[in-house]
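Hi all, long-time lurker, first post. I run a small reading group and we've been trying to get comfortable going from sequence to structure in the token notation. Rather than ask abstract questions, I figured I'd post a concrete chain and ask someone more experienced to write out its structure so we can walk through it together at our next meeting. Sequence below, copied exactly:
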Amino acid sequence: MISLFVNCFERDYRQVLAPGFINAKAALFRYPFTRRVVTINNVADRADALKRAGEAVKRREIDGFLEVDKMLPAALEICGLQARQLGPVRHYTDFALVAVVNAAPGFLLHCCAEVDLVEAFDWITPALEKLQSNPQYLIANPAWGNDPGSVEKEALFKSGEYLVGHGFSDQCFLVDANRLAKPIYGYSHPSGSRYPLSQMGAVFEQRVDAYMRHSDLLRLTDPRVSYLHKGAEGLGYPKLPIWRRFQRKLKSLYQPLSRPPVTIQN
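-- Answer (accepted) --
Happy to help. Here is the structure in token form:
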């Protein structure tokens, strides 16, 4: 059982809930999802968002929708977090916690509204088999098309068709939801500084990345398929204070200029 979850918020809920949007997005994966669910988060006109979501259900374009703020308390309890721990960047974590908890006990395919596969391709069927073959593999995802060279650079080794390595992005990923719907969000790792909002708080993808590194868990990247983020990334980010931006700039200047060689294994 694999559920497709798509989050929407004030900037894009009208587009996400418009006729045809979810159908078009789901069609790119060429996979028969058990459920299609939209999470509704941080909207100014709740009544309008719920009306549009209800219409999408009537059209049978989605199977259901979840109001993040109403579902969050239960998700926080299951994931071992308190609301205050999400901090000023809570809306970059809350929807994902709700998704993993409500996708369990099946698999979750989460895809950002502004992310699309470059070409339609069923990467999910082989990824599901690969994830189930080895518990060290936690996450599977397509290659990120905006920087194809970095995919191989970040890999630790190759296993079959997959490039295997560290890292996590919430833009498009497949996971056994049970493995994230539990108290695994209290870890930190120096690599987290690369995430855009790390100076303001730990967001969902940063927390998952830290857990994976501490637990020696890996992600599978399928280079046969890639995705693009079609929106202007970062428009919704809270603005960092000047001193934080200066601190981050200094840190980036002193990052190592070389990377260890990639080891490719068969």
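A couple of things your group might point at:
The chain has ten helices and ten strands.
Confidence is low (pLDDT under 50) at residues 233-266.
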